[in-house]
Amino acid sequence: MSIEFPCPKCQETYRVKDDLAGKFVKCAKCNHRILVPESVLVEEHDIENDIGDWLGDRDSQSAATAPASEDSSPPESGRRKCYGCGGSLAEDAVICVACGYDFRSGAKHATKLGDTMPVKTARLSIVQNTRHPLSEKEDQVLTAWAYSLCPEVEAYLNDYASNIDISGLVISIDHFCCAMSGLLSETFSREFEISISGRIAGQENKVKLKCANNISPLNKHQRRTGESRDEDMQRIRDVVKGKLDKKALTHGTISRDPFFIEVSLALLEKFDELLGRDQVPVAKFWRIARVIGVLTSIACSAAAALLPREEPWNTRFVSGLIVLAVAYLVTYAIGACFMPASFFEDFGAGRRIMRFAGTGTGEETQVKLRLTTICAIVGLGFMAYITMTTFASH
Q1: What pTM value is reported for the model?
Q2: Which of 231, 310, 313, 373 could cysteine-pair with 333, CB 3.0–4.6 Å?
């Protein structure tokens, strides 16, 4: 029995014996090292599940910046190697988001313009293509291949490429603006507006996203709320104004920038909506927990402000606001404690919680939230006991 497969780089087709499965061979045309695929029967997959696996697999995405493996060691249990780049993927993965290799057809997905843009270049294109005011881009219709790369949760938008068809999902960015104005001063504003169309199993879906302006201070040494580091913001300003080459925007600069972090999280949430992943049980459970938390917080705040006491109304109003904020944080943390670790890593809403907690994995997020919740409940109970004891003594 023989195995037929193409070279991921030059698409030259080869046929070898099945005893070479899982080993590397060299392409005679371009000298590219190819991992021979296993000779397995390809079953029909559900398109929506395929896309969910493609979007949510963190390890396959992180392989985008890793070189191809130079050994032929078998993959770890529950994983499989990509035949195109050698990266580690989920065992049931359909397509590698690092190089576009399709396990079902053996083909390597590429844009209509030819080779896909490297990930690093796509990352920098967010800033590189913002030299024109927003008004000059409003009439343009741009299409792109958009995806998110974990664990840093950064959005990589390739606004040069045509639509890319991956397992039946056509992602079309109909309107893309990330404009920076006021380039001659230390102040600039940034806007992000995007409309994404997707076709899943023959059904058209469309979502829109717009992120608010992020205006930096006039004084470059002044720290604005939400900005991570002044030197990072100054480096972005200098690149936009042409004082520095775009290579000055390092991986850390982009990952620490609050504007692009918010864009990335919002994109993940919109992808969940587009793919229908916001309707799965774990996502619905989180929405119900949020609603219960809000209602509980409002009830606690109203009780603290409206119950008859000797304090003046303004004191009771302030105490009600404090109780509202504390109750909301506590109920938010309690609700998040019951979420599985995969929720924090694979869903946009979970990624937002993980960003708030300042952790890197779902397991770390669970532990931190549970410890915080326990400490908060114990602290609130102790404060309530002291308050009741104090008032009772008077």
Answers
A1: 0.47
A2: 373
